[in-house]
Amino acid sequence: MKPLVDLISEQGRDLTEKAMVVLSSLATIPEARIAIVEEGGVTVLVEAIEVRSVKGKEFVVLKLLQLCADSVRNRGLLVREVGISPLVALSQTGTA
């Protein structure tokens, strides 16, 4: 899982978008969600909100939702990673 999370953190690479799609598919599996979070996935996704296009940011938000929807622990991690401010900003400027 770590190489996938690392790809997402790299900016300007074609593989980054593909890694996000793979992450999205894996995030539907409970065991994979745990592995994504353990490998720093929440932190990487919060950082990605800052640098992506609006469409990319919205995709990142969907991934965060997948990781946090059923987990109080992951939601707490999102708050600790200062993920709320970027989400609020996106809610005010996003297209969704």
UniProtKB/TrEMBL annotation:
It comes from the Eukaryota. InterPro entries: ARM-like, ARM-type_fold, Armadillo. ARM repeats lie at residues 1-41. Keywords: Ubl conjugation pathway. Gene3D superfamilies: Leucine-rich Repeat Variant (1.25.10.10). SUPFAM superfamilies: ARM repeat. This is U-box domain-containing protein 4-like. It comes from Nelumbo nucifera. The lineage of its organism: Eukaryota, Viridiplantae, Streptophyta, Embryophyta, Tracheophyta.
